[in-house]
Design goal:
The protein has 73 residues and is mostly beta strands. Helices cover 0% and strands 34% of the residues. It contains no helices and 4 strands. The chain has a 4-stranded antiparallel beta sheet with strand order 1-2-3-4, with no helix packed on it. A hairpin with a 4-residue loop joins β3 and β4. It starts with 27 loop residues before the first strand and ends with a strand.
């Protein structure tokens, strides 16, 4: 909208769905890791240990829509 990236989820109109840990339906907490004039990185961190191994799944995406699994579950 303003031809720039933001570190504020509210400013870009994103509303986090209620997490399953709070009686909601979302398994991932979304956060903006970084943002500047040239790009951004957003992170989705699982709030559920899907396979019970003690690891929580983490994904990151950048301005080029490159999706990377940072931590496998």
């Amino acid at each position: 909208m303003y031809s720039r990236y933001s570190t504020d989820l509210e400013e870009i109109g994103f509303e986090q769905e209620t997490l399953v840990t709070e009686d909601g339906t979302s398994n991932y907490l979304i956060e903006i890791v970084s943002a500047d004039v040239t790009g951004f990185i957003v992170r989705a961190t699982a709030v559920v240990d899907f396979d019970g191994d003690g690891n929580y799944n983490v994904w990151e995406m950048n301005q080029d829509k490159k999706l990377t699994e940072v931590t496998k579950d």
